[in-house]
Predict the 3D structure of the following.
Amino acid sequence: MKNDTFTAEERQLIGRSAEAGVMRVLKSDCEADSLQLRELSLPLTAEDLQSETYTVLKARMLATVNDPDNEGVGIAAPQVGIRKQLIAVERHDRPEPEFAFYANPRIERYSEEKALGREGCLSVPNRTEAVPRSTAIVISYLDEQSGQRVEETVEGFTAVIFQHEIDHLAGILYIDRK
C-alpha cells in the first residue's frame, strides 16, 4: 500500500524509473490538455516528499525542461499531467545557474515595482507575449529535508520564473496575464 497521495493515474504517468526521461508536456492548444492545465494543484505531503514516486517525478521533470527539443527555464508538475504543487526553477540569481525544486511554493509578498517582459511557456507552443510581473517577491516553500516552511526573497529574472511557475499551480497561464 502506498502512503503518498499520488493517484494511480499519476503514478502511471510518472513511471518507476528516472531513466524513462522526458514526459509529455500538456499543450494549451489541445482542449483536453488546456482544461487540465486550468485545474488547481494539490499540496504535497511529507509522505509524498519521501516517496520514490516523488524522486522519479523530479528526475523526469528535469529531463523534460532540459529536453534539447523544447528547453525551458522552469516547469510545473501540472504541465506534465501531475496535479501537485511542485515546480522546478532555473536559478539565474546564483553564480552557476542550476535548477532547483520547490514543494508547495507560495508568493508571500510582491514588490510594487513591476516590469514588462516577454514570456513563453512549454505549454503554450510557438508564442511569446509581454507580461507585467513584480521585480521582487518573497516566496515560501516546504523544505524537503526538514519539512519546515522556508522563506526567501527573489529578484529579477528568477522572480519572473517563480511567478510564472507558481501561476501554473493555480491553473493560470501567462497568456491570462497580458
Summary: The helical segments are 8-14, 31-37, 46-49, 52-65, 156-169. The longest strand covers residues 99-110. Residues 11 and 56 are 10 Å apart (CA to CA).
